[in-house]
Amino acid sequence: MPNRKLEALVTHLVASPRVQSLWHISDRGVPVFVHTIDVTMLCLEKFPEWREKFPSFSLEATTIGSLLHDLSKASTRFSGQISHSALMSTAPDRAVREAMDVLDEAQSSAGFSLESEQIDHIWHIIASHHGRWGKVMPSTPEALLVHQMDYFSATYHRCSPVDANDILPFVRDGLKMVTVAARLGVGTSVVRDRLKEACRAEGVRDSRDLLKVWESRGSVVCGSLERMERVEYIRGLKELALQAPRPILEAIARARQPG
Ligand SMILES: [Fe+2]
Q1: How far away, in angstroms, is 36 Cα from ligand 1 center?
Q2: Does domain 5-158+238-256 correspond to CATH entry 1.10.3210?
């Protein structure tokens, strides 16, 4: 595929209302859109290394496959009939069909079509992205990379980007946990866990004592360094996702540079 066609497709795909609808569903407090951008960026970062191992490694199939891999999460979540995981282990062709509809629209908006082998490859990447937990195992390097980065993102980058310093102003105002959770867009368990972690880190008994520390110092230590770094990383990721497609286009430009 000549340069710029991938960029045009990425731009149309990111703008697609169905891809944008992934902002409205979350896994452990992280919008699926943010996770999607994370997986795509991780794949693009790994691209030079994988191209060295596999000289014909496809930038196009990897980028488009990663952008569309979780598209069916919106329909499965809104319909409530079957989970995305169940769909991937029983009927991945449904996930593929939904993704292909969006890809078809993007191709017609961009004014060109991918070759049929590339489409087949994207099919395979989407169908196999759950690896051994799905019905189809990845059988190409590109599908394996998307599966590995999806697993990595789901394991290490899925954590609500909320900490005790976000919660304590509401505690001061006397809001109930359930209201605080709704205001921050997380579950009540996240609010409770974050307060507990901060109490431990500050060496205080409960959130009333934590509030006193926050009021005197203006902030509290929110937990382990690892937790704080992870929350910071996910905040950065969310910012990056808000700027899409720009960060993806920049990562594609970096990936295109000869190694
Ligand atoms: Fe995913």
Answers
A1: 6
A2: yes
